[in-house]
Amino acid sequence: MKYELVSVIVPVYNVSEYLDEFLNTLCSQTYKNLEIILSEDCSTDNSLEICNDWANKDSRIKVIQSTKNGGVSNARNLALDKFSGKYVYFADPDDVLHPDLIEILVNHIVDHNADIALCHESAFKDGISLPSFTTTSDDAFTIENHAQYIEHFADAFTGPIGWTWNKLYPASLIKGLYFEPNTAYQDILFNALCSVRIKRAVWTNKRLYGYRIRSESITGAGTKDVATEAANVYIKIFEIFKSTDESFSFRYLLFALAKIARLRVQCKLNSWHKSEKHIKDLYNHYYDNYKKLFKYSSEPNKITIFCSRFLARHCFPIFYLVVKREFKHKYN
Hints:
The chain has 11 helices and 9 strands. It has helices spanning 16-27, 47-57, 72-80, 101-111, 146-150, 159-162, 186-195, 227-242, 246-270, 273-296, 302-331, and strands spanning 6-12, 34-40, 61-65, 87-90, 96-97, 116-125, 141-145, 167-170, 200-213. Mean pLDDT is 87; it is low at 218-222 and 322-332.
């Protein structure tokens, strides 16, 4: 097997507490032919100093720095203009990696002629627990075609399809693609754009990425109002699939309407009035869009479509009744 260069892109901002542990797991990968790009985003702690210290110890590490703090998307995009590898892997500097992660994903892409390789994660709480990596020798995997792969964007939990750090991307797959700035959901948008190009995907059953749960992270801050951003992302994903996968986009829009209705419930119960109005308008606009899709759809099962149309029209009041008590319990 030829060991092609893998570029590892790491956005760095104020993670001095975790950086040594992370870099130790990255530099100890069993797959050695790595180009490690630490994209430093003007940290106010000593993250840059730690990055430079590691670069002096390991010639595979390159440190690049933003001219001003621009967020994780800008940091990654800066590196996307500078990498040299045949494959690209994204990692977050407050997490940890199984030592075989990159080698296993490279082998799966090569062995199965896949457009992308994915693994699973082991979540652990900061300062409380450690990740429970897969230790079994079981090499079970799943291969999916394009239609099967994109269906995951309508999963009840979209984490595995939306994350970037559980995937190895051929450079040819992501050519010309960048992360959208100024959003908390840049990863799933990036992966939606990639998915349009994916014909064959391979998932390993192994848990190889240690995801650290931090209270100050976006996903850990349960009462922060990101509802407008979330609603906008559902619609952006719909627009991505609308021109490439008509059948799936029709079903995805129903899924998105239900999710947006749920977000509106969250806004009402938290008195996020500005977001609530935006989400209401967005829902109404795309419900009208759904009716047009229904009218001109080439889907053969009109009874199923009629039922879906009914649910789309009424899913806000249904979700409001079902979810109201759940959110009151969570936020009061």
